[in-house]
Amino acid sequence: MMIVSGSSAANLLYLVQPDLTAKWQKAMHNWNRILAQQAIVYDDRLRLDL
To answer: What is the largest CA-CA distance in the chain?
Structure first.
């Protein structure tokens, strides 16, 4: 088992971020439904400017 410190984990995420975001070409399927559900759950933190 490998133990990773907080800064090591943050550095790893920073380094792999370009690879992950390169795959985000299309909009998510059912994004409107997901956003509506999140607006209900996180109504105090999510502001929808519709």
So the answer is: 47
The alpha-carbon radius of gyration of the chain (Å, integer) is 16
Nearest to 39 by CA among 49, 29, 30: 49
Q: How many angstroms separate the CA atoms of 17 and 8, rounded?
A: 14
d(CA 1, CA 6): 16
Distance CA 30, CA 28 (A): 6
Write down how long the chain is: 50
Mean pLDDT in consecutive groups of 10 residues from the start of the chain, 50 residues = 70 84 75 86 75
Instruction: Tokens for 38, please give them.
Output: 């999140």
User: Can you give the pTM of this predicted structure?
Assistant: 0.40
pLDDT value of position 48: 67
